[in-house]
Amino acid sequence: MKVDLKENFDLRESPIPLVFMDKDHGILQFSTGVLNFFELPNSHVPKKLDDLFGELPLGLKTCVNNNLEHVEIIPIVSKKGKQRWIKASLFPFSNGSTGFQVFFDDVTEDKEHYELALEAKKIAKIGSWKVDLIKNSIFWSKITKTIHEVPSDFEPDLEKGINFYKEGEHRERIVEAVSACIESGKPFDVELIIVTAKGNEKWVRSIGEAERSNGKTIGFYGVFQDIDEIKREKLKNEELNNRMRAAVQSAQIGIWDWDVVNNHLIWDDNMFTIFDIDRDEFKEAYKAWESALHPEDKERATHEVALALEGEKDFDTVFRIRKQDGSIAHIQGRAQVFRDGNGKPLRMVGINADVTKLKRKDERLRKLLDLTEKQNQKLLNFAQIVSHNLRSNSSNISMLSGMLLSNIVKKEQDKFLDMIHTSSERLEETLNQLNEIIRIQETRYSDLHGVKVLPILENVLERINATIVESKAEVCIDMPKAIRVIGVEPYLTSIFMNLLTNSIKYKSPQRALKITIKAEILGNRTVIGFEDNGLGIDLEKNAKNLFGMYKTFHNNEDAKGVGLFISKNQMEAMNGKIEVRSTVNKGSTFYLYFNNNE
Amino acid sequence: MGAKKLFLVDDDVIFKIAAEVLIKTHKLADEVVQMSNGLEAYNALIALEHSPNDLPDVMLLDINMPVMNGWELLEELKQGPEIIRNQVQIHILTSSIAPEDLNLSKTYDFIDGYITKPLTNSDIDKVKKGL
After folding, report:
1. Model pTM?
2. What is the DSSP annotation of A297-357?
3. Which of A142, A164, A314, B25 has the fewest CB within 10 Å, making it most exposed?
């Protein structure tokens, strides 16, 4: 920069930081800009250049002595105690008189940038390169060479440079990028793998820009960065992230993040999916959560959140939500609370998973276990039958025939043959009963359908009419004509028959037998009650065995203990159950519960 | 030497007829008294409490019977007069092959045997030897 010094020019007025000085560093004139620049009071009059920024650097003094142009960057400490970098540019007077114009510039910012860049270059391993298409020469900076693991005297050319890129996709992409840059001046920024001179594979980032003249690319230049570690880390992270995302998505796990201080809750997409809520519907996720919570679980769930915030108990719970379609979902929630140094909660981050299916499986398992237990009980009953009725008859046959063969019995042979016959008949009867029981166990849902109760009952009463008349029993029926249950007709016949004959068999000798049969619908169940005023059963003693196999409770010698066992099995096969209420010497009421849901 | 008197407690009439023939053939007892359930046996035993000479020497007792089964009778006898437990050799005679029944029988220390039906000659010999 040169300033024409005119006679009437007053340097003082200028805001530009500028001084004129002689070769002994004495200041001849100075601008107010200088005072401002060096944070000096307006009244200050600097005498020598040293007054402005301390001792002069050697290079500057040498140039002044030799009357040479010079630029020097000098560190100073400002009045406010900050480090500043001052660029001082010296120009000898051009009008023949000895002396200099000295112009100042603050380069603190540039300097800092420069240093940062220098530092960054070292850390980030950034090299530079330049291709001159006219001279057909290539320049690689030292770091560029280091990245390629070539010696510092390596002389690159375009082909060599490109051949460092890994064969295949990577080389193809750099060729494409460079070609486009040459042809149309399109800049490039690519991340590719090179194979260094030492054979190491390395991720690099290559950024290039064209230098164009008259619409033609005459060269291009750019930077070259070793991003191997970053890239590998990034790829690893990406992979991990993808895997995690896949896991989280497939497991239907939602993630939430609650800023406790500002009471701001964020849900990820999965959360909205799990809760079956449209993201746009709620401005605040917390409101969405609260609105979805099952009313019966609301208090508990919010209380558990509070407990977790207080640090009393980790948040790990299952609560129910009600979805928009009215279905209930079981949600497992777990969360962690993050606190400041004083233990004050700052954030709560947690996951929600829909465990409804799991829960259902659990319930199914429990039901299955229940069923297995029941079936085990039935098997035990079977073992009892086998050991009692089957064995007692078969052992009779074996004993009787053995005695016949050993000629112990002489005169009574016919009687013994008769007894063998009876035993085999009883054996067959037992087998038939067992068969019946097994058949009942095998009843399928498809065997069940709606059956009118009254006609079946009337049919049974007709069949045992003689017995009823003989026992002088009074039978009252109180039920709607159209009442239906879901069941199997022969089972109903068998059960009604069994209950009615039981009432007659165990009637009280002291009073006339009265049997009342009622039916009513209770919600989704139909209950049929058979009430009598007979002997009654001591339930305290017998409740456990009442419906068991071969259990009897009265001094009645022809009781076989099969009827109620079969009735119970038939009720269960029809998805129903049988219960009894009884008082000794007052009577018994048997209740048949039928499920009306198909 | 056989027993003088034997109680045969079983609800199965056919079995009782056959068993009595077998018992008498083998001279296990001179007199066989048939009963159909535990209650009948209990009443008969209690009635003889004060005339111990008329108590049976042996009682063959079935388990599965209506009215009062074998176990219930044994429970009553456990609480009942000592003389019955001391003087009557009680053998369970059952068609049950369930181990639970055998194990349960071992909890009564006044039981002398456990026979599984069918009743055989060797069973009778064994009871006879124990007299």
Report:
1. 0.44
2. HHHHHHHHHHHHHHTSS-EEEEEEEE-TTS-EEEEEEEEEEEE-TTS-EEEEEEEEEE-HH
3. A142
